[in-house]
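User: Mind token order:
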Amino acid sequence: MDRMNIMLFHSTYGLRPAVHAAAERLRAAGHEVRVPDLFDGHTFETVEDGMAFQQELGKDELLRRAVLAAAPYSDQGLVYAGFSFGASVAQTLALGDAKARGLLLIHGTSDIAPNASVDELPVQLHVADPDAYESGDWLNSWYLQMQRTGADVEIYRYPGAGHLYTDPDLPDFDQPSADLTWKVALGFLATL
């Protein structure tokens, strides 16, 4: 297994303990992991507060921060990864980085630029089923669009789990789904 350089982005809740724990899990599997704080130390107790903060900063500023965090390492062939909002950031960066090695999305996706094009980029998505933020219709459309970009996409759905089911500090937490997500995700990373 090759050691991957992973850029892991946090959710709307900010850089919380679950994100650091995920990074440690990935490091224990032999990967180099960077966890940028796009919110400058702010964390939130509710999705609404986190989304209000995101709107205050603005989408362009958040993307600028993410690009600045990833840029020093992009020549190494990064695997972009993220949770919910962070997954949307990871997807945007991966689709714009010709050297990206992979894309690991947990709890989220994003719009796809019409001109996005990749060369068989390995992509793995893990989502709750159903998920209030990732409807079935949206995911079907997203999957087809990602295939049109040239991505090689796998989707894993977790029935009965809440949106952020891998975070043990949130009400959405679902231990069996979280365990399976990490088992499958680590297997995915081992194939890159």
